[in-house]
Design a protein that fits this description.
single chain; Diaminopimelate Epimerase, Chain A, domain 1; alpha+beta; 38% strand
Amino acid sequence: MDLNLQKVHGSENDFFILDETELERKLTAAEIQRLSETLCDRVTGILNGADGILLVQQAASLEALNKMRVINSDGSEASMCGNGLRTVARYLAEKEQKDNFLVETMHADLKVRKAPDLAKGVQSFQVEISPVSFQAETIPMKLGNRVTIINSLIPELSDSIRFSVVAVPNPHLVAFVDHETLMGTEQERIAKLVNTENPWFPDGINVSFVEVLDKDELFVRTYERGVGFTNACGTAMCASSLLHVLINDGNFFEAIRVKNPGGMVKVVVHQDPDGNYWMELIGNATVTHHIQTTVEEALAGNFLKSTIRETDEQQDYLHFLEKIGVAGHK
């Protein structure tokens, strides 16, 4: 069975887009698990692997154009991926010739639309990130009788770093730190602690350290559950921006520049009349390669007969990186 893939990235958070609606049949759960292992392996996978696979499927929702599922490189499924959603939005926009539509995700139908290019040759899309919850049961989190944690010490993790916990809807543990702490070893220690068997976050949790560069500018470094340290995590950047507004007197409804090891996005934090929060994530949706193979060869991890066509979009993106200067935080 023929298999056409796109290798894509949002802020160098990279994925393979696999459109199941173009296949002769649906993939089984075991096949999806196996494909995540063979395609995404950083050593043996095709094109140096990826952070995960983005599945495009028929939507159950009548309002959404299609459904997106996010399969991490270890085969686990994430409830959302903001960087990935931008690339799926571009894929569907080009396939269906639409600039503004809804995409079904695990917890909500999310608005996506074409945005102005970030730089020459760097296509950009704007996507909704919601719903937001601070409640322990949505994380899930088990820290005694603590129902929410915002800018507070968690002695089980650190006696000096203050954390906030929020689901957007992926769960995030976020700390605002100085540059030395950002570049140090504490983040990895804590991230591995809460993403192996532990009594506090039974399903694991994404861990972000955030440096405030200016009132409307952040740098976010994320250890993503199921992935490890990643060049960027869209929902983490949105969670960090929301907490910046709430904790550091940032501004609602104004764009916050968020740098990351893979680039830069903009996040606008909204609050509706009922007091609910949601974010808009604006950033690149870059296609680096088009790949033709077969399901059988991909399941076997045999890519010798695959046809790979490289685009020139990555060069434009690298020029963009040079202009915004993110190298000092890698």
